[in-house]
Amino acid sequence: MFWRSAGVDAGQIERHIPALRRFAWALLRDGAAADDLVQDCLERALSRWHLHRADGDLRAWLFTILHNLFRNGRRSVARRGNAVPIEDDAGHGIADDAAGGAAEGHLIWQDALAGLAALPEEQRSVLLLVGVEGFSYEEAARLLGVPLGTVMSRLSRGRERLHRLIEGENAPARPALRRVK
Amino acid sequence: MGEAMPIGEDDLQAWIDGRLAPSRMQEVEAWMAANPEAAGRYRAMAAELASLRDALRSRHDAPVPARLRIANLQAGRRRARSRQWRQVAAVCAWLALGSGFGWVGHGLWPMPLPGAAPVSGPTRPMVAEAIAAHHVFAADLGRPVEVASRQEDQLLRWLSNRLARPVSAPDLTGQGYRLMGGRLLPGAGGTPAAQLMYQDDAGARLTVYLRADRAAGGETAFRFTDDAAQGIAGFWWVEQGFGYAVLGQGISRPSLLGVAAAVQRQLLTLPSAPAGAPGQSL
């Protein structure tokens, strides 16, 4: 048993927590469940710190752990207990609307988020890792444990689908281009 | 092959992501000029990606809740280990001594409190408010909190804005309590006050109450308060211009002390987020 998370550099890990929370939230669309997932991820990272290669990419390692936990459904959603649920996420428009500014822009955001939620999980993960979190195609492939070609086709299909969800079903289906690589 | 490779889907995805090799850029742009309809679609997809990034930015920029701070997670791991060992030690002692000496209680060992010994003493308006708020809301079965912990980010941003200081929710899982949520309350003279509510697995609730308190008396050590009429007891203290109270009903004094010490420790080690506008970035 490995008891001491020796040599953990808290600051080094904490730098990535905001991005991990964003990724988890985009996967789950629930703030508490997302933070549970991030907490599980961090706890696992601390308990397995000795497996982490000092020269490896810490960010990719953390995202891999989080995504695996998500996919294995090992997140303990129940941990938060029976907190009283209240209105949906937009309900208490506390401070975050202050910067919302242009109502129209906000509408498009909602569309993009709703469209994202409607994508199959595989496509959603790729869109987020590449498009939002800025991983390269190769990094995303390693992180997800799939071939590069799979990442590219999920990306292409996911974006096409998101586009049609946002534009409406009558947007013309496109003649798919051949993947030449 | 002197001839340029035909434009493929991967090229267009890379164009959306801004990852196209410069050498390929010109060819892709020429293709887009020749295929305006498809080009419009890829431009729209790039715009959708941008709005997705915008939509998720506030998730990235939101203050990180206390329970995700590495120091707290590490402390949780240490506590879990020491709990394990206390239990093992307790069982060993019990086995060694035999039943004649009875159960060597685990979990009954009070946490050491840094600083002065807690004493009962003269109270302050802040404490009376905290007791009244506990009395009213902790007993509420239907809607004990105004904003539930599933919206912890929003709750803490709200309270931080209104109290004009960073408010975090102390992680009390080590003491067996989970955050339920919280609310804003009017303190004396209209001072905004925050109440955070926690619950253990058995349903026992405790509240953490805080507000600015610059009344005479300055900083105080932990003081015990016991409101016999309401059956509400707890610890309170004043530190750096803020008053704090940790209250419960039917919770043992050592447990309350352990919770109060954890609250005080965690609220002191707050990250120095800019007070007043923690949620403004989008």
Automatic annotation (TrEMBL), chain A:
GO terms of molecular function: DNA binding; sigma factor activity
The keyword Metal-binding belongs to this UniProt entry's keyword annotation: no
Domain RNA polymerase sigma factor 70 region 4 type, chain residue ranges per copy: 116-162
Highest taxon, organism lineage: Bacteria
Statement: the UniProt record of this protein carries the keyword Flavoprotein: no
Keywords for this protein: Sigma factor, Transcription, Transcription regulation
The name this protein goes by in its record: RNA polymerase sigma-70 factor (ECF subfamily)
UniProtKB/TrEMBL annotation, chain B:
Entry superkingdom: Bacteria
Transmembrane feature ranges: 88-109
Keyword field: Membrane, Transmembrane, Transmembrane helix
Protein name per UniProt: Anti-sigma factor RsiW
